[in-house]
Amino acid sequence: MPVDLYYVPGSAPCRAVLLTARALNLNLNLKLVDLHHGEHLKPEYLKINPQHTVPTLVDDGYPIYESRAIITYLVNKYGKGSALYPEEPKARALVDQRLYFDIGTLYQRFGDYFYPQIFGGAPADKDKLAKVEDALQLLDTFLDGQKYVAGPNLTVADLSIVAGVSSFEASDIDFKKYANVKRWYETVKSTAPGYQEANEKGLDAFKGLVNSILKK
Amino acid sequence: MDKSVVHKIHVANNAAARAKGSRMPTQPIKLYYLPPSPPCRSVMMTARALDIDLELVLTNIMQGEHKTPEYLKMNPQHTIPTMDDSGFILWESRAILTYLVNAYGRTDSLYPKNPRQRALVDQRLNFDLGTLYKRYMDLYAPMLFHGQGYNDEAAEKLNEALGWLNSMLEGRVFVAGDTLTIADISIVVVFSNLEAFGFDFSAHENVAKWFERTKKSLEPYGYEEIDQAGARMLASFLKKE
Questions:
Q1: How far apart are CA B157 and CA B132, in angstroms?
Q2: Inter-chain residue contact A89 with B116, CB threshold 8 Å
Q3: Which ranges carry the GST C-terminal domain (chain A) (predicted)?
Q4: Which of A33, A124, A142, B56 fits a 20 to 30 Å CA distance from A134?
Q5: B134 at A interface, C-beta within 8 A
Q6: For A47-91, how does the pLDDT look when each residue is reduced to its tens digit (9 = 90+)?
Q7: What is the C-alpha separation between B151 and A208, in angstroms, rounded?
């Protein structure tokens, strides 16, 4: 029963899926998508994902996209009872809220600030940077007296958020000045299973890409 | 059926459910809200669909009521909607929607438990927040709240997202399958706004048909007085040419 993942190594949402699969001891068939040559815009890819984004998971023929829907799916399907995505409604709701904070506020503001610079050659926008700092301040507040973002256990919310926040290292954003965020970051790096392979490797690829673009 | 009769049946049903030991909130769930706010409208319609009593707490963000020390203590992100279920605080409308069904849904039809079906709903909810609603806000927030003009580039990006939604609806009755889910209730509020603002999305045929279908499905859950009315309130903020 093959579980295919269409991905690129540098992409933070893709790394969130890799981290989750690794935490579940799940093997994925990794399929590199050649974005540069428009592989994601070809009919075969549009069939599984009309929005032509990465990551896209195809589980025994069934396609799923949006990284945060993929990672919750993986736990629901392959990790029933796992603390990674608890089933109790209140505990689950907290993880869900952190995931929506990630896509709608934290990672979004990072993308709004940084991606125009690296992919659009735009100058750094001070107001957009201020919004990222505001989001990091919120994350810092969420982490007050908490080991992980959604409580005492590692969850998919940590995996999604760490994939995004680690990408900040490729930019001029100093997220480590937020004490709780810094502490949490070190914790997740050392407790998320297979962190080196699942996130650090792809992060290096992302940094390499950014450096080559910015050096031009 | 007469509204007061409907209400009496509703109250009796909830009492019967509690007597049977089925899960219902022990007291009305507080919802900090403002009527025109689209994510608040999603939560209110979903509560109706689940037969959940809400205690609505008007929170005038125009007058900073979301930034009082008490509000910030409850929700440091100072957003609406914020829910208080007998002391359990939650914000992010889509997390509230999933919570309400997970905790109180008599059936799972609004948010199926089957992992694949659930993943489809979750993908639609993520597409909503991360792409559709974002691009809607990128176009309309400057016009609604900062008196700015219509931005063609932003409109193009919104249309692109509508095109993607149109593809997602191909061969489907509702956004995540054959029956209504919280994904429809979350997404419909954007279209109620677009309709009230006079944004023409008729070129996206699947979307247009789905919108009419969903409006009808939500009629028993307060579509007119919650969503349509809220959208019209918001439309009045738009700068009149």
A1: 9
A2: no
A3: 88-209
A4: B56
A5: yes
A6: 999 999 999 999 999 999 999 999 999 999 999 999 999 999 999
A7: 35
Residue type, B31: L
Q: Report the alpha-carbon distance of residue B174 to residue B211 in Å, rounded.
A: 9
CATH of the domain at A158: 1.20.1050.10
**In chain A, count of helices (H) and strands (E)?**
10, 4
On chain B, the residues whose CB falls within 8 A of the CB of A96 are 92, 94-95, 98-99
Task: Please tell me whether residues A99 and A203 are part of one structural domain.
Answer: yes
Are A102 and A207 in a shared domain? yes
Asked if the Cβ–Cβ distance from A89 to B120 is below 8 Å, we say: no
First to last CA, chain A: 45
- Report residue A93: phi and psi, to 5°: -60, -40
Are A10 and A98 found together in one domain? Answer: no
Just list the catalytic residues of A. Answer: 11
- The Cα–Cα gap between A56 and B123 comes to 11
Residue A168 to residues A95, A159, A185, B202: CA-CA distances in angstroms? 22, 15, 12, 40
